[in-house]
Amino acid sequence: MDPGLSRLKLASLALALHPFPTARLFEVFSSPEGILAAASSELKKAAGLKPSEIRSILSFDVDLVGAQDLAELKKREVHLVSYDESRYPENLRQIPDPPPVLFMKGTFLASDWKALAVVGSRRASPYGISVCETFSRSLAAEGFCIISGMALGIDAVAHWTALESGGRTIGVLGTGLDRVYPQANSLLFERIPSQGALVSEFPFGTLPLAWNFPRRNRLISGMALGVLVIEASERSGTAITVRMALEQGREVFAVPGDIRSPTSRGTHRLIKDGAKVAESVQDILDELCLRVVHETPPGSNRNPPGTMEEQRDFTEVNPTFSEGGRDRGPAHETRPRLALCDHAGTVLQMIGDEGTSVERLVLRTGWPAAKIAGLLTELELLGKVQKLRGNRYVRSE
Predict the structure, then answer these.
(1) Distance between CA 392 and CA 72 in Å, rounded?
(2) d(CA 158, CA 115)
């Protein structure tokens, strides 16, 4: 292994073992190596660091982070993805406390920004399972990456339906990636990396301790544009995910359930408190201001809407799709592209020549940060805007 690359990975691993306020640190010091090599006076200038955190960073010795740990990561095909890398999930950058480094098995694609978290009861009813399959299948057909927490019940149904529909899915764990939890999902654990990724901010050896899962839940909502709740009791882990989503400015959708079922009380409470009612995927598309236009070149044979070809070639950022390491070749003749929706046009008009921040756009529009981030990504894909340092955007034209 290249010595420089090895040291960078060791620095990333050290940072993963001792997470700190991420965005500000990387803005100032650029890389894991830069953070760990910073002097005391430089660290004191980085806003948001406590004296104890500064002392901890200064005490780091990258050489004490074993090469054996890196060898174990390689053996299990687990990658370290740090905040400064382009493949770090873009939606996750927008939350207040993104992890400095993610452990990832599988692949992140640029198109995964178009993601929805699907969560709900571990004790899903037949109604909940059926509804989850319907929504997850339709979301996959519309190019959404399905994100969930690998739990039994609704989580597992959402993951499996995305896989079986030929879509992408990301499973977020509350343990290290060396541990399958729960064991009942071992087959799911094996399948997901071929059509998405398994993700954790916890190092190998981390047990499924209760306090890990609220941190896991903030990643589930943070990687998505919104959260869809399908069946939940009033007091459940789903409620934590919803709270995290609201704090992050994500949209929250809830599917109405059977009024006689205890697992409907949580979703009905969410609706009473202002969650958007989701009776179909179109309700979600309308709220997020996302739509897909299917173009057919003259003389070509158009695939029926919702076929596998259209499901897998959502965005022009990824003209090919790698599944299980196999390149599917050049882009298909029939493929969807993003269309500039009215809200994206409004955001474009508000972007100045010197660059405009996401925070400024949130203030000017009154829309959630997640919606602004999604619209900006749409504009980037269309070549209308460019992203600058400091989370600012300028027009490309």
Answers:
(1) 38
(2) 13
Region of residue 258 (left: phi > 0; alpha: psi -120 to 50; beta: else): beta
**Banded model confidence at residue 58, pLDDT cuts 50, 70, 90:** confident
Residue 33 identity = E
Residue where one domain finishes, among candidates 14, 42, 67:
67
How many angstroms separate the CA atoms of 319 and 329, rounded? 9
Question: Residues 217, 314: one domain?
Answer: no
The answer to whether 370 touches 249, Cβ cutoff 8 Å, is yes
What's the confidence (pLDDT) of residue 343?
Answer: 78
Look at residue 62 in the predicted model and tell me its pLDDT: 65
The residue range of the domain holding 350 is 342-395
**3-state class (DSSP) for residue 228:** strand
E strand or H helix at 257: none
Strand-pairing partners, residue 79, are 104
DSSP-derived secondary structure letter, 367: -
Helices (H), 192-306: 212-222, 237-247, 265-272, 281-288
CA distance 108 to 105: 9
The domain that contains 224 carries what CATH number?
3.40.50.450
Number of domains the chain is built from: 4
The residue count for the chain? 397
Per-residue model confidence (pLDDT) at position 92: 92
Is the pLDDT score of 369 beyond 90? no
State the CB neighbour count (10 A cutoff) for residue 102: 27
Residue 293 predicted with pLDDT over 50 = no
